[in-house]
Design goal:
Distance between the termini: 29 Å
Radius of gyration: 24 Å
Number of strands: 0
Order of helices and strands: HHHHHHHHHHH
């Protein structure tokens, strides 16, 4: 204190930030060396922004599924184990798998139904999905369609039978009408409908994953995972600021 006034040291300790920035810069340099390219300052900034956005989106998808699983008394560990295996071939991004799984849980399907239906959707989407959608997008939209009972979306993966038609056929098989089906029975009708129509595509995803086009898709998915990893590395430094 001097002359009755408080004085403050306004110098900012930037040592930690400089150290963190140096680590991030070093990380980009190593990535560039591995890829055999040179990152300009603009490229580093653009890639960093995209990486942070990808990591934030992945975190939001994961937390959304985690919250829903806990709210419904389900095992998140089992879900993530399935998703890890489901996305291992690189055909479906993990963020899309999280969102699709969340839609299926919201609809109320059992774990067994979810896993079987998502596999069928993946196989069907390889060759029969709507052309404007990627594999991940088509599966997300199909599961959203089931959640919202919207057949315009459910056929995104190439399962073209109208959901209402699935209800009608199932209702007839048990001696009732579609209007009298319970929610549990509707889900069973949808499950049987997807499995019946999608069965013809069994094995398509595994075959496609080994093709030239499939390997190209896997590289794209791997790059997306790289973005997420880099974003996760950058975010702590941004939070520190």
């Amino acid at each position: 204190m001097a002359d009755g006034y408080l004085t403050f040291d306004t110098k900012m300790n930037t040592a930690g930030f400089k150290s963190g920035l140096g680590q991030v810069t070093g990380m980009f340099t190593k990535l560039a060396a591995l890829a055999g390219v040179a990152f300009s300052v603009g490229a580093v900034v653009a890639f960093g922004k995209a990486a942070v956005q990808a990591a934030s989106q992945a975190e939001a998808k994961f937390k959304g599924l985690d919250f829903l699983m806990k709210a419904n008394g389900r095992s998140m560990q089992q879900a993530t184990s399935f998703i890890k295996e489901y996305t291992a071939d690189g055909l479906v991004p993990m963020t899309s798998a999280y969102e699709a799984y969340k839609n299926m849980v919201s609809r109320g399907y059992s774990t067994e139904q979810i896993e079987k239906m998502l596999k069928v959707m993946k196989d069907a989407a390889v060759y029969n999905r709507q052309g404007q959608f990627s594999m991940g997008e088509s599966i997300e939209k199909a599961t959203m369609g089931l959640r919202m009972e919207n057949s315009l979306l459910t056929d995104s993966v190439g399962i073209q039978k109208n959901v209402a038609k699935m209800w009608q056929e199932y209702a007839k098989s048990i001696g009732t009408t579609a209007n009298n089906l319970t929610m549990l029975q509707k889900r069973q009708a949808e499950f049987e409908g997807f499995m019946a129509e999608g069965g013809v595509f069994a094995g398509a995803a595994a075959e496609y994953a080994n093709s030239y086009a499939g390997k190209g898709g896997a590289i794209t998915a791997a790059f997306k995972e790289l973005q997420i990893s880099v974003g996760n590395a950058i975010i702590p430094f941004i939070n520190a600021l």
